[in-house]
Design brief:
The chain is an alpha/beta fold and 415 residues long. The protein has 14 helices and 24 strands. Helix 5 packs parallel to helix 6 and helix 8 packs parallel to helix 10. The protein binds ligand EPZ. Ligand EPZ binds next to helix 1, helix 5, helix 6 and helix 12.
Amino acid sequence: MDKIVIEGGTPLRGEVHNSGAKNAALPILTASLLTSGCNFFRRVPDLVDIRTIKKLLGGLGVRFVEGEALGVDATDLTGIEASYDLVRTMRASILVLGPLLARTGEARVSLPGGCAIGARPVNLHIRALQEMGAEVNLKDGYIEAKAARLKGATIYFDLPTVTGTENIMMAACLADGTTLLKNAAREPEVSNLAEVLRGMGARITGDGTDVIRIDGCPSLHPTEGEIIPDRIEAGTFMIAAGITGGDVTVVDADPGHHDALIAKLRDAGMTIEIRDKAIRAAGGRIVSVDVKTLPYPGFPTDLQAQMMAMMAVGPGLSVITETVFENRFMHVGELIRMGADIVIQGNSAVVRGVPRLRGAPVMATDLRASACLILAGLAAEGKTVLSRVYHLDRGYEKIEKKFAALGARMERVKG
Ligand code: EPZ
């Protein structure tokens, strides 16, 4: 298994390109199941998770045309099953359930199971489909769903589930009648998907708010679309500028997706400048601030670990509260091995800043925890060796190349 070796202490400087968003590309690729013909999507990032969803869709008969824009053609579907061996490697595979059921009338999708950051149930996805008239059974670890044609319904989500909102929004596009999603997720990735679905002829309004209306159609047609910039990748680089006292401009970004992060980084002593499609982030004297993660537009849970790395070298005390997932502090133990002073109390971590972290061999446990340890290694004195970097490759495109281009002393060691 590959490792990444980092020599800390160099302030990052320069420009970095913001890749397309993993969490927008995944639902947009599965949306291709809703229609025959070839869709074309620009700015699909080259990530392990994208290769996984393509393999899963390929197993259902979807064909791909590689090029500047990725062609995705679901004309001839040959299967209705998403198997455990693929779904267990990537929970977002659940995103085939809604479109597959709506297009073919049946779907057999493995229950994703938990992951490092939590149990991550999909009960809200299942209940919504049942409310739309689907017959759903759980058998041998699989979700078996059948519906000749889904019926529009008013769905209330107990929690603003991102992939739940996306799954049901896709299913509702081909339902008979109107579906209202209440307490829907408001993430930009939901709006990106809605935009693509409208391009296919779907009638959707309200995306980006907590009530989304979908008026079902008998069928959809192929479209062309563009994946939005990855706000979590951009945020990771902005925080990297802060923790190293550098000056980084993220280009090809969408500043409008970063309100909560920008406000927090400014409170934490950083200079943040907004340009048309770019964000300049310059580090200054770090100020210790509290952070509470919330559904969008609140502070993103996917940047909680990265922010903790920066607060670990702050001057004072920072309380970091995780409200979205029940076990998203797996990075704390590894930060402590690098000299951080952190105590977990329930769903909060109390971080007492230390003057410097010390490089050490550390282990990635999940995607964003890996990013946190990269940032900690960039700021630490000495050498950090990060193992299990396959977690990182799931969600960051060529990350060591992008950091090296900013002056980081970082290299991948093939293992
Ligand atoms: C999406 O996960 C993202 N993944 C996650 O990014 C992100 O952290 C998360 O949203 C929150 O923003 C993708 O978009 C592919 P949820 P998702 O359903 O949809 C509970 C990354 O690092 N819940 O919004 O799985 C759930 O347990 C990943 O890129 C239920 O109880 O998250 C959690 O506590 C990590 N029942 C909360 O809701 C359900 O049926 C939010 O989960 C669904 C969710």
